């Protein structure tokens, strides 16, 4: 009986959560590496993201090959030599907003939050905690975050000859504009 | 009885907490899985990149082009033959060189010019990526690049006067390549070399050849390369050798270094396809290198 109740409550929780998801197939992520020798920037507008408004859980994924560089050779090297896109086609994040209160987002203006979870790049999964903002505007969820990533943490090897050209830490900015998921009415 | 009940309740709570924690983790992963599902469902066509490291396999062209707004400065160098002995420092005393510039007008079309010290030859070419190997919906299995070049020898003629058009040679190639894996790429090159002028009646104005080339990566930045041009039966095939070259590609940032051994001295098609004389078995092997440096003149916006 007790287990049945537990199961029931879990089930209902799942149902509830299914109705409050926000998602986008075209979020934007950019990264920027700056050294005295060279600035390297790339961006992708193919970030798939989903945010669960009841639990504060979120996930996003981006195809590595979708990153656009100003120089085509850089883009080739990025995919071939650094992140090995054929072996590891996507970077992903799965995590949640720390001590999430659904009410917070309903306040006007961007609300600061902390997000923690697993970031996977180049096949290496690391637990990270980063700051960000959430804002609900015209029934769209705007999520933004800026944080730094060290290529070395993700086993991205940089050869000695270009070590001066690539920064030790790379600044990553994420910007998502999520629309509510229209769920089929529960029976 | 009561105690038993509390312990049961306690374990029940614990199970519930565990279950909740598990569901939370699973919920995140589920979110991710849903996303990945969607992403694979709507997979976009993606071009296969970097079939070869450079625009040359060794002597000949690869399917690669520099890309829009990119200029490549290419220095190609061949020393003398290894069997020329210690007196010539095993070929290092002699050298032929080609200096070249190529520029990507867009991602498909490239123009190039060069000058070889051999027979004081100028060459110009156009290279067009007709088809690009891609993955995703409507995947294309191979890349095809079309290549056309003309070469003009500016060497002073000795003996009788010859018209200027006799200085010209044209080459047409279809380069068909497939990157089978991140490490292995193979290329086929059906080729026609048309020479406006040949010395004797028996020599062919039109020489047909079929090339095959490959590259196998050894590490992320070092690859083994090979290139072979088979001359189709005819007078040229009887009098000359098929060109064979083996080498390494070493890549560092904006440079590609190619080190190789070949039985051909020239570095453009009109030389290494119909005019190769060296025999590998006799040690007529030229050591050489290509160095390319990439400049971005116009960056993508």
From TrEMBL, chain A:
Residues 12-179 form the Lipid/polyisoprenoid-binding YceI-like domain. Transmembrane segments: none annotated. SMART domains: YceI. Residues 1-18 form the signal peptide. Keywords: Signal. InterPro entries: Lipid/polyisoprenoid-bd_YceI, TTHA0802/YceI-like_sf. This is Lipid/polyisoprenoid-binding YceI-like domain-containing protein.
């Amino acid at each position: 009986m007790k287990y049945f109740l537990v199961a029931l409550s879990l089930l209902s929780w799942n149902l509830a959560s299914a109705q409050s998801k926000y998602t986008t197939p075209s979020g934007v992520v950019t990264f920027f590496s700056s050294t005295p020798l060279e600035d390297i920037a790339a961006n992708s507008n193919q970030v798939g993201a989903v945010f669960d408004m009841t639990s504060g859980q979120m996930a996003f994924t981006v195809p590595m090959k979708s990153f656009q560089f100003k120089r085509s050779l850089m883009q080739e090297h990025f995919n071939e030599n650094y992140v090995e896109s054929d072996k590891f086609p996507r970077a992903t994040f799965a995590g949640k907003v720390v001590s999430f209160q659904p009410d917070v987002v309903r306040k006007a203006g961007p609300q600061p939050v902390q997000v923690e979870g697993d970031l996977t790049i180049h096949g290496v999964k690391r637990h990270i905690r980063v700051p960000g903002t959430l804002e609900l505007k015209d029934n769209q969820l705007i999520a933004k975050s800026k944080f730094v990533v060290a290529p070395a943490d993700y086993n991205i090897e940089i050869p000695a000859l270009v070590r001066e050209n690539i920064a030790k830490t790379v600044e990553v900015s994420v910007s998502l504009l999520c629309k509510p998921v229209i769920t089929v009415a529960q029976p | 009885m009561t105690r038993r009940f509390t312990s049961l309740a306690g374990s029940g709570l614990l199970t519930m907490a565990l279950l909740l924690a598990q569901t939370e983790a699973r919920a995140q992963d589920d979110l991710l899985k849903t996303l990945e599902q969607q992403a694979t469902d709507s997979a976009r066509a993606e071009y296969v990149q970097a079939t070869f490291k450079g625009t040359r396999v060794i002597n000949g062209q690869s399917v690669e082009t520099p890309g829009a707004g990119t200029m490549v400065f290419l220095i190609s160098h061949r020393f003398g033959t290894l069997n020329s002995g210690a007196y010539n420092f095993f070929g290092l005393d002699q050298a032929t060189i080609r200096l070249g510039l190529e520029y990507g007008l867009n991602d498909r079309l490239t123009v190039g010019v060069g000058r070889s010290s051999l027979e004081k030859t100028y060459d110009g070419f156009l290279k067009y990526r007709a088809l690009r190997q891609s993955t995703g919906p409507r995947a294309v299995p191979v890349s095809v690049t079309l290549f056309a070049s003309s070469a003009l020898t500016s060497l002073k003629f000795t003996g009788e006067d010859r018209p200027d058009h006799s200085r010209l040679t044209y080459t047409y190639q279809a380069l068909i390549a497939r990157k089978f894996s991140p490490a292995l790429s193979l290329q086929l090159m059906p080729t026609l070399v048309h020479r406006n002028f040949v010395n004797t009646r028996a020599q062919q104005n039109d020489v047909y050849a079929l090339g095959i080339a490959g590259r196998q990566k050894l590490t992320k930045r070092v690859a083994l390369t090979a290139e072979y041009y088979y001359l189709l039966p005819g007078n040229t095939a009887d009098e000359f050798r098929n060109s064979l070259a083996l080498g390494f590609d070493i890549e560092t940032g904006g440079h590609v270094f190619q080190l190789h051994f070949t039985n051909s001295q020239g570095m453009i098609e009109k030389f290494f396809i119909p005019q190769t004389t060296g025999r590998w078995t006799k040690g007529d092997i030229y050591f050489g290198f290509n160095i390319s440096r990439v400049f971005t003149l116009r960056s993508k916006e």
